[in-house]
Amino acid sequence: MKNSSRFFRNTSCAYFPCHPNADPETFNCLFCYCPLYFLPECIGTPRWNANGIKDCTLCRVPHQPDNYDRIIQKLSAAIRERAAEGKEKGPRQPTE
To answer: For residue 63, what is the DSSP state?
Structure first.
């Protein structure tokens, strides 16, 4: 695939590809750090360690080119949800 606004492959990265068993030809580096990591329920296949830390080592969802639209939809929905929650709570008070 060609580099574009939906796909970027960085073969010069020291970690490329950063997930085991990934296909280097279709590996999308656009979401190098998954934008859905902060969501407890994402569209990937994370594991949780004994300390409750999300481990996405074996998940390749953000690196598969066909998942771009799914990621953007899930991220947009999460942002809208949090914005609605913020409106219900009112404006944040400044902290010192």
So the answer is: G
C-alpha dist (Å) from residue 11 to 22, 37, 74: 13, 23, 27
Residue 13 confidence (pLDDT)? 94
What's phi and psi for 26, nearest 5 deg?
A: -115, 10
pLDDT given for residue 87 in this prediction: 73
H helix or E strand, kind and range, residue 41: none
Q: Rounded to an integer, what distance in angstroms lies between the CA atom of residue 31 and that of residue 61? A: 10
Say how many residues make up the chain.
96
Considering only residues 63 and 93, tell me which one the structure prediction assigns the higher pLDDT. 63
Share of the chain above pLDDT 70, in %: 94
Six-digit token string for 92: 């944040």
User: What Cα–Cα distance (Å) separates residue 71 from each residue in 2, 29, 46, 55, 65?
Assistant: 20, 14, 15, 18, 10
With beta carbons less than 8 A apart as the criterion, state whether 28 and 8 touch: yes
